[in-house]
Amino acid sequence: MDITPNNGANGKVKLCSGFGDYARLGFLLFLLVLFSVFLPVFCRETSALEKTEYILAAYPANDPKKVFYAIKPLADHISSKTGWEVRAVVTRNYEEMVQRLTDGSVDMGLMSSSSYVRFARSIPGLSYIATYMEMDEGGEISPFYRSVIVAMKSSQLKTAEDLQGKRFGFTNTYSTSGYVIPAAMLSARGIDPRTFLGKIFFIGRHDAVVEALRAGSVDAGAVSDGALATARRHYGDIFREIAVSEPIPLDAFVAGATVPRGHREILREILISLSPDSVPMEAFRRNLDWPAAGFRALDDSFYDPLRRAMGIRTEK
Predict the structure, then answer these.
(1) Pick from 106, 233, 241, 249: CA 20 to 30 A from residue 264's CA?
(2) What is the DSSP string of 14-37?
(3) Which pLDDT value is given to residue 137?
(4) β-pair type (144-145, 248-249)
(5) CA distance 204 to 202
(6) Is residue 85 scored above 90 in pLDDT?
(7) SS3 content of the chain, % helix, strand, coil (to 5)
(8) How far is CA 159 from CA 175, 185, 193, 240, in A?
(9) DSSP labels, 99-126
(10) What is the Cα–Cα distance from 130 to 143, expressed in whole angstroms?
(11) Nearest CA to 113 among 128, 124, 100, 125?
(12) Per-residue confidence (pLDDT) for residue 27, from 0 to 100
């Protein structure tokens, strides 16, 4: 390094800057090493801080206000366990649930089993998380339920063949127990609902079908066995079962593409840890009269029998 005095115009002595260059180079190397050490940590922390504001949705199988108050404690429970902000909403119908899971404006929620098997594989990034379960009158917890074609006992309707020309109430074309399965039950008996039945009404909700029956607006209708059990508790043994389906898989809790894989695993653990007497399950029972009993982590293939019943090809 040259430290030869150099007299400038002002007469002051200057030194060459070689020593300063080495100092700056060393400092830059120190920063580079520091950056290389902490960059992976920073990236991991950034990944851990992925989206933490979610919308949990349910479809309006019952009065939308009742559905909202049924699912809000579940959203609150997930929030309390994770620190995420989870907001509950009720979609206007089954179609909106599918659309919002597709466009990402809903992140997670309950899908009816027929909607799940019909649309899950067409919704980008959708993942099965767990299956909702209920407790039957004998205390057995199961991920299955049934569809029932029902009429009033005061009527003369006793068999499916008696329904010819009668007014019939379904819920919604996307409803598993309120349309898909009862229509298949009739078809299995050689009955085409479109030509055999009289006027067909799509009433929207299971409880609304029950009220239409009681009011005499329809002669028969299709509801879930849970909705029928609720109706009997409220109104007594005034309903006649005309046909009952085989066991149907219950609703699927799903997560959309907006939920990262790690958060899906956390969701699954939270759901399957819910006991029948937990606050979220009690809210389902109190607001909807559903015999809610928790969730079970099964697999997408659990819904394959329903796919086959609906004529949907299953993956090998």
Answers:
(1) 249
(2) E--SHHHHHHHHHHHHHHHHHHHH
(3) 78
(4) antiparallel
(5) 6
(6) yes
(7) 45, 20, 35
(8) 23, 12, 14, 10
(9) HHHHHTS--EEEE-HHHHHHHGGGSTT-
(10) 10
(11) 128
(12) 57
Q: Do domains 53-143+249-309 and 147-245 have the same CATH topology?
A: yes
- Give per-residue pLDDT as tens, 161-176: 999 999 999 998 888 9
Do 312 and 180 contact (CB within 8 A), yes or no? Answer: no
Distance CA 89, CA 292 (A): 19
Measured on CA atoms in the order 115, 116, 121, 125, is the torsion positive or negative?
positive
Does residue 64 register a pLDDT over 80?
yes
147-245: CATH homologous superfamily? Periplasmic binding protein-like II (3.40.190.10)
Tell me which architecture the domain covering 53-143+249-309 has in CATH.
3-Layer(aba) Sandwich (3.40)
The predicted-structure confidence for 235-255, as pLDDT tens digits, reads as follows: 999 999 999 999 999 999 999
CA atoms within 13 A on the CB side of 275: 2
Q: Which amino acid is at 13?
A: V
Phi/psi region, residue 281 (left: phi>0; alpha: psi -120 to 50; beta: rest), is alpha
Q: Confidence band (pLDDT; 50, 70, 90) for 62?
A: confident
Phi, psi angles (nearest 5°) of residue 91: -75, 160
Domain coordinates of the chain in residue numbers? 18-46, 53-143+249-309, 147-245
What tokens does 245 get? Answer: 């389906």
Nearest to 113 by CA among 96, 132, 140: 132
User: Residue type at 158?
Assistant: K
pTM for this model (two decimals): 0.74
Closest Cα partner for 267 from 252, 282, 279, 250? 252
